[in-house]
Amino acid sequence: MSSIKTFIADFGWPRIIIALFLLSLFVAAPIVGVDLGASIGDVLNRFGQNAIMVLALVPMVQSGCGLNFGLPIGILAGLLGSTITMQLGLTGLTGLLVAILITIVFGVIFGYLYGKLLNNVKGEEMTIAMYVGFSAVMLFSILWLVLPFNKADLVMGYAGEGLRRSIALEDYWGKLLNNFGQFSIGGTPIPTGLLLFVGLCVFFVYVFMRTRTGTAMTAVGSNPDFARASGVSVERMRTVSTVVSTVLGGIGILAYQQSFGWVQVYDAPLFMAFPAVSALLIGGASVTKASMVNVVLGTFLFQGILTMTPSVINNVLKNELSEVIRIIVTNGMIIYALTRKTKVAK
Amino acid sequence: MSTGTRLLSLRGISKEFYGNVVLEDISFDLDRGQIIGLVGENGAGKTTLMRILFGMPVIAETGGFNGTIELDGQPVAFKTPFDALDAGIGMVHQEFSLIPGFSTTENIALNRESLKTNFACDIFGKRMSVLDRVTMRERAVKAIHTLGVKLDPDMLVSEMPVGHKQFTEIAREIDRKNVKLLVLDEPTAVLTETEAEVLLSSMRALAAQGISIIFISHRLHEITKVADKIVVLRDGKIVKDVPVAGVSVQDIAAWMVGRDVKTKAAHLSVCKDSVYLNVEHLWVDMPGETVRDVSFQVMEGEIFGIGGLAGQGKLGIANGVMGLFPAGGQVTVGGQDVILNNPHAALNSDIAFVSEDRRGVGLLLDESLEWNIAFTAMQAKRQHLIPVLGGLFSVRDEKSMKALALEYIESLEIRCTGPRQRAKELSGGNQQKICLAKAFALKPKLLFVSEPTRGIDVGAKAIVLETLRAYNRDYGMTIVMISSELEELRSICHRVAIVDEGKIAGILPPTADVAQFGLLMSGLGAGKNGDAA
Ligand SMILES: Nc1ncnc2c1ncn2[C@@H]1O[C@H](COP(=O)(O)OP(=O)(O)OP(=O)(O)O)[C@@H](O)[C@H]1O
Ligand SMILES: [Mg+2]
Question: What is the CATH number of domain A12-339?
Fold first, then answer.
């Protein structure tokens, strides 16, 4: 009895409720005539699409910069990576690798500047990050129009300049990771390559957080004065965490694009931060502590609900209630986490 | 004095934290106007018992407690500290709970501000009333006066020396109108002897007004001086509940520990002739502890003491050398210049520091003991790391971190459930030992220790002082010890410097008369007679 109690206390009520809700959706799916195999495949795919962006939040949470609502900045680096590579006409694996490389370069530059900025607004990081993210996306909306892109399938047809809203990746590296080693079990397609790529990134961050730098970062988040007295440069650690976060955000959007099949520019990056943040919080992270388990579990639960509610509920009710549920879950989770004073993460 | 009417009864109080029993069947009574001295080793459960009494949320969050509490003959069970406050219980916690950016007055009157009504109140209600600062200030001055101390009612908490913070906290509690019971959890730990004397006499005065007091302290002579009766906790059980008359400090110590405590005579090592630490014209801008112009020399292998009243700058010296606050001047260690304003450089010069601010600077409260003890060594000395991919980068060596933690848990007798326990779950005194372990783990050539025995029990104090002596003797570690307790400095140091108004007022041998130290502290010393030793 008491062991159940501690389990619940450790795991947290919100996560239990969400997990049960997801489970009931899986149970209900075949009953209302939804193809369970395909749904699970869908969930796996969306998990892979989004996990790295959730992962990108971890370093900054650990270093005490809070939830990175400025994730769009990393995403912009990723967009530069893919659009420039496409403009160069590189395709397939080469294309993807070059895109990753370019993303890393821009990610480091953007992350460094963004990190410097956040060091000047200690204590207000999350609010400022949100504004910075918004402004950067708006600035880039102009840049997408004026940068000298001119490849026919990238630019708007009638003007011959300015990027299109959505650019098809099909002829470049669309679904490259998804299709790598893909197989199916009982009608459920497993996006092997994508999951492997996510696994690789998770492993990278896991190891990184265990290095001397990663450890210092965690200590800075836990108690900056302690870290400083131990000879750690608080500002530097915070900047490093922001750089890693930004680069990962960029790589995250590359993984997302290849699976989704489209590169979306202009205001699309704006809508990426909130779902990532909610997923991390659903996974049990707090504003000051996040682990790999929080990332994997959270992304799975969150994307699971996002995928399953429309198909199940809409089949039953024939209306758009699912959208309402999605919004309530996303934003509700953020509010819940921000108002909670005790920490759950272990 | 006790008037004989019962105020508080505790009956069969028990408490466990996740299976770890910390209090077992605690029962005692307290009369009106009576002062109870509550003593026990670090981790005996004193603070936990007081948290239960005061309805602190951490108790309910960790599974509540068993037993009953009666106040004025009525059973009570406070759900929050506010209920306890309403019932007339005031508590001064072991750790400060003041608002740094507020003044003395504002902190004392917090949440009970005197208000002035204006026309807006008629329309929008009481929330629109403004603060009546004049009355608030009067109240603060009155509370400060009751305590018999000198505090500036307009000073900001962030700029105060610790002693003043402590008095501000106590003033806040006695400013309440209906206060019947005051719980003071180690209020004297941060005070110098003279300040503590002042507090003890104001406690007597409060008791004479009929206020009951539960007083926790590890300075046992204070207990025998001020308490009416003594309750001794050992391992969560009451082992003694006796009137204070005729009880000696040795008796209490023996009851606490369960065996006789030997107070060994100091056996000092001989220090070398060469100067190891040379400080010239050091100034440090540390709020509340400004150092103006300090010069002194410490010999290799010496234990050098720095004393003085709170706020005079003795704490600033170590903080400045370690680069934690803006500083200037010339500091050399072993002939090498120490770069000031750079903590990393200080650590690299083989200096370690045990901060007086253990929760603020000393600990990672949310991390494990392993992390707390090994972190500084990992960052400054690159220890406890395993190289990966031929040294391309390195990751934490959790095994060696654990071994290190276990080593110190054993040698310093740290009471915990294991090296994975989080620092914030330890009792105050055990947290202090973690801070020491962290510094020892660096194996420094020069160690600054600020208030090393603050809040630790008699047995542990002996261990800590003995450990410092052993490191000094066996590894030739040079130690600069800063303490508010003159007796402690005199028992361990080769020489003791007294700091007054940000300057060294004089340096005396430990054998010098207490009165001479007293003169230096009060600023009436013979002036700067330098190396009298
Ligand atoms: N929140 C908590 N979670 C788990 N254990 C706790 C918690 N708080 C206290 N403890 C444990 O309860 C025991 C008693 O602690 P307590 O703080 O009451 O000691 P104390 O007598 O006040 O000691 P000190 O003189 O060092 O202040 C300790 O072993 C401590 O580790
Ligand atoms: Mg205590």
Answer: 1.10.3470
Which residue ranges make up each domain of chain A?
12-339
Chain A residues touching B380 at Cβ < 8 A: 230-231
Please give the structure tokens belonging to residue B260: 């006789």
Question: What CATH number does the domain containing B315 carry?
Answer: 3.40.50.300
Q: Is residue B357 part of a domain?
A: no
Residue A261 DSSP one-character state: S
Over residues B362-406, the pLDDT tens digits come to 999 999 999 999 999 999 999 999 998 888 889 999 999 999 999
Instruction: Determine the pLDDT at residue B533.
Output: 37
d(CA A64, CA A210): 17
Long-range Cβ contacts of B185-188 (<8 Å, 24+ apart):
B185/B46, B185/B47, B185/B50, B185/B91, B185/B92, B185/B93, B185/B94, B185/B216, B186/B94, B186/B216, B186/B217, B186/B218, B186/B428, B186/B455, B187/B92, B187/B215, B187/B217, B188/B217, B188/B219, B188/B222
Tell me whether strands B20-31 and B212-216 are parallel, antiparallel or unpaired. Answer: unpaired
Nearest to A229 among B61, B324, B396 (CB): B324
- Which string of DSSP letters, residue by residue, matches A10-38? HH-HHHHHHHHHHHHHHHHHHHTT--HHH
| A6 in B contact zone (CB under 8 Å) | yes
Residues B345 and B206 in one domain: no
Query: By the 8 A CB rule, do B13 and B36 touch?
Result: no
**Structural domain boundaries, residue B207:** 1-88+180-260
Residues of A in Cβ contact (< 8 Å) with B360: 225
Q: At what angle do helices A292-317 and A321-339 cross, to 10 degrees?
A: 150
Query: What stretch of H or E contains B38?
Result: strand B35-40
Residues B296 and B214 in one domain: no
Nearest Cα to Cα of residue B525 among B515, B533, B292: B515
Domains held by chain B: number: 4
CB contact (8 A) between residue B382 and residue A212: yes
Task: Give the residue-averaged pLDDT of A252-256.
Answer: 95
B contact test, residue of A220, A226, A237, A344 with most B CBs within 10 A: A226
Q: Whose CA is nearest to atom 24 of ligand 1?
A: B42
pLDDT at A341 over 60: no
Residue nearest to atom 27 of ligand 1 (CA): B428
Q: Is there a single domain that holds both residue B474 and residue B452?
A: yes
Q: What is residue A152's predicted lDDT score, i.e. its pLDDT?
A: 85
Q: How far apart are the CA of B47 and the centre of ligand 1, in A?
A: 7
| Mean pLDDT along residues A212-223 | 95
Residue A3 sits at the chain B interface (C-beta within 8 Å): no
Asked whether the beta carbons of A295 and A55 are under 8 A apart, the reply is yes
B42 residue type, one letter: N
Q: At what angle do helices B193-208 and B133-147 cross, to 10 degrees?
A: 100
The verdict on B220 and B277 lying in the same domain is no
The residues, ordered by sequence, that sit 6+ positions from B435 with a Cβ below 8 Å of its Cβ are: B354, B355, B358, B362, B363
Residue nearest to atom 25 of ligand 1 (CA): B42
- If one residue of B18, B39, B42, B48 were mutated to test the ligand 1 pocket, choosing by the most ligand atoms within 8 A of its CB, it would be B48
A334 pLDDT higher than 80: no
**Which residue's CA is the closest to the ligand 1 atom numbered 10?**
B425
Name the A residues in 184-243 with CB < 8 Å from any B CB: 207, 210-212, 215-216, 218-219, 222-223, 225-233
| CA A134/CA A129 separation, integer angstroms | 9
Contact flag A226-B361 (C-beta cutoff 8 Å):
yes
CA–CA dist B65, B59 (Å, integer): 7
User: Phi, psi at residue A310, to the nearest 5°?
Assistant: -60, -45
Give which of A2, A10, A212 to mutate to test B binding, by max B Cβ within 10 Å.
A212
Q: Which token pair is A58?
A: 């971890």
pLDDT for the residue A328: 78
Bridging pattern class, strands B35-40 and B229-234: parallel
